[in-house]
Amino acid sequence: MDNLERVNLLGMDATALADLVVQWGGKPFRARQLQRWIHQRGADAFEDMSDLARGFREQLTQHCVVQAPTVSTVQHATDGCRKWLFDVGAGNAVETVFIPEDDRGTLCISSQAGCTVGCPFCSTGYQGFSRNLTASEIIGQLWWARREIERDIGSARLAGSEGKVESTADPRVISNVVMMGMGEPLLNYVPVVTALKLMLDDNAYGLSRRRVTVSTSGVVPMMDRLSQDCPVALAVSLHAPNDALRDRLVPLNKKYPLKELIAACNRYLEFAPRDFITFEYVMLDGINDSDAHARELIEIARQVRCKLNLIPFNPFPQSGLTRSPMARVRTFAQRLMDAGVITTVRKTRGEDIDAACGQLAGEVRDRTRIAERMATQRLSIPIKQVAA
Length: 388
Ligand code: SAH
Ligand code: SF4
Hints:
Blueprint (H helix, E strand, L loop, with lengths): L6 E2 L5 H10 L4 H13 L13 H10 E2 L4 E7 L5 E6 L5 E8 L4 E4 L3 E3 L8 H4 L2 E4 L2 H27 L14 E4 L9 H12 L11 E5 L3 H10 L3 E5 L5 H7 L8 H12 L7 E7 L7 H11 L4 E7 L13 H13 L4 E3 L13 H8 L3 H9 L10
Parallel strand pairs: 1-2, 6-9, 9-10, 10-11, 11-12, 12-13, 13-14
Antiparallel strand pairs: 3-4, 4-5, 5-6, 7-8
The structure holds S-adenosyl-L-homocysteine and iron/sulfur cluster.
């Protein structure tokens, strides 16, 4: 029997795993043991799971696998960021980025190969849509990254104990997860929620709801579902303060315009683990960064408890867009703060490895020429015409 016919246990949440174990005549607590082996210890060989009965281990070996997507490249940035490119078959690749900071280590993971939303400032949007990732492929990014990071820390500590590299060892592990990689998580709802539940599960990754963030371009009905099924922290990609501009920058706005989006944010807040929504706002030179835009944005911010996160645009050739100058970003931020809106400017990280949304996988797709075709179509959109 090859792997294709075996059940991949990696993407099974506690209930699904318990059902499987009970179906085989086992006790439900065996599922919890199994979960701890897979997710806490990063085990993928059933024969190593020493506290499981031999017969059960044999059954597992025969019928199941623990399989993350295959890594095709790993890149290390000079600032400690690390980026993995996962091959998810048929020429599709998705990326995962680890961003170490002073007080946390954040893993940014992908939910789809490509994206249907097609925002013109996003290289994932340029690739078009290939397919949804499975729950195994989503949680597999965390499973793999954590194994690798902990292995490196372990070997650095080992070397340190011999008096070699302790001072340069990186002790930071994954404390936060953000669904801000490739794809729109709320358009791949069931696998994403399964993966989120594993992130929160004490027998798996045990992260608190505050440390797991879903970023969405504003899929209103799914925001409501998420508030009931798995209310983690929410970031909303706003990027424009009026419908005319947002229709262009985040085309999903035509379906769920700002008024509906803001109402959905307020409904979500009743269940959210934090008492604010993070609004992401990519700063595009001459497009959405004027004082008039800042004034409109202040009006929106008054309608929802929120924090504004201004993101310097990460340029890529096909977009034809440029990053707002830093002086403009600072002035824009100041306008918001003067009006009492809590505003931060995101630090650009991992620039030497293009650690922004979709960039490396974008290069891979370029070779298939799909990106070029998308770019030709997209550049005909006159974004500048609707800029205030
Ligand atoms: N689809 C979801 C999550 C993935 S994108 C969403 O749109 O929210 C994660 C964040 O990266 C979004 O806020 C997105 O707007 C931003 N982003 C995409 N391309 C970017 C670029 N080239 N420069 C800066 N931020 C970008
Ligand atoms: Fe999709 Fe998000 Fe990129 Fe827009 S910004 S194209 S929603 S991944």
